[in-house]
DNA sequence: AGGTTTTGTATCGTGTGCGATTTAATCTTA
DNA sequence: TAAGATTAAATCGCACACGATACAAAACCT
């Protein structure tokens, strides 16, 4: 416990660096489609459930309106999605995929899948990490 | 292997989210000192080895000049560090800690250490994660 | 119903993060 | 040694990411 600072430095940094490497990998895979990594995460969320409000999307992705609003605007102007003010509650914005996003789903996911597979991550490794990162994330989040 | 896309989504997102939670935790711990999380990482690197060039620092932190140059400028104007052009090679910039950074080292690391300890991360968990993240990072980095 | 509070978005300012370009200094090599 | 290549920083443009603030619509409340 006495070298916790050194250790801590390494864990926070390990997560920080790994996230950076993922961003670079996905950026290169997505670049041909004119998508950024965070935009791809938005598409992933919408491919699972379309027509959600900005708030729901933000909760799903852990992003606030300060990040999402301009991002949604960019993606709308690039033809990926469409904003529509809710009829029943004028405060809400519903977000819908456009045809382009539905049509490109397979090529995009195919390309990403191929790219990820070149990393040769073992299934066991994958599952362990998912579990441990989940535990870690909950602990870190719970403390704030 | 057939649900790799779904799994993949979850791993990249798990790393992405965890990094975000760390950022929030550190941001709140460092805010009293007027430091951001990336700036704290710069200090950590310099506390270990002072007087390095911008390039060395960038390699240590995995950051390019487009990120580091303005960050160093901000930290210099906030009194944390000092830039000095190398005498022997005028292209290089050496970066030195200022007194403030040396004096505040203990209070800062103390506060961070306390904050991290509230997460109650087990040593075993910690070491496993460090190892697995290292492996993952190398695999992801190696593929680009 | 009308005032208050809450809620959902939008906007703003600051700080990363990155690829591409630029500039100046150093190194290479013919 | 002078032209060309390489290297180290700086600069630029774009896209997150976040906290704070603003604002309008809806809900709440006697």
Provide the fold topology.
2 copies of one chain form a homodimer.
Chain A lengths: L3 H27 L6 H12 L3 E2 H8 L3 H13 L3 E5 L7 E5 L1 H5 L1 H13 L5 H21 L1
Antiparallel strand pairs in A: 1-3, 2-3
The structure holds a DNA duplex (30 and 30 nucleotides).
Tell me briefly what this model is.
Two copies of one chain form a homodimer. Chain A has about 140 residues and is mostly helical.
Describe the structure.
Chains A, B: It is found in: Cytoplasm. Chains A, B: It comes from Cytobacillus oceanisediminis. Two copies of one chain form a homodimer. By secondary structure, chain A is mostly helical. Chain A has one domain: Winged helix-like DNA-binding domain superfamily/Winged helix DNA-binding domain (Arc Repressor Mutant, subunit A). Chain A contains seven helices and three strands. Chain A has a three-stranded antiparallel sheet with strand order 1-3-2. In chain A, strand 2 (81-85) and strand 3 (93-97) form a beta hairpin. In chain A, 27% of the residues are buried. Chains A and B meet through helix 1, helix 6 and helix 7 of A and helix 1, helix 6 and helix 7 of B. The first copy, chain A, binds a DNA duplex (30 and 30 nucleotides) through residues 20, 23-24, 27, 36-39, 53-55, 63-71, 74, 89-93.
């Amino acid at each position: 416990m006495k070298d916790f600072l050194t250790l801590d430095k390494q864990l926070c940094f390990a997560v920080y660096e790994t996230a950076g490497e993922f961003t670079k990998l996905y950026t290169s895979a997505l670049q041909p489609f004119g998508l950024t990594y965070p935009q791809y995460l938005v598409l992933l969320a919408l491919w699972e459930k379309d027509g959600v409000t900005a708030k729901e999307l933000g909760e799903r992705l852990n992003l606030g309106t300060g990040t999402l609003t301009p991002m949604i605007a960019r993606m709308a102007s690039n033809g990926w999605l469409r904003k529509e003010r809710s009829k029943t509650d004028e405060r809400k914005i519903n977000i819908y995929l456009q045809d382009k996003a539905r049509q490109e789903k397979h090529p995009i996911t195919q390309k990403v899948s191929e790219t990820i597979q070149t990393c040769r991550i073992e299934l066991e490794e994958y599952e362990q990490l998912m579990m441990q990162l989940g535990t870690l994330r909950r602990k870190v989040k719970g403390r704030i």
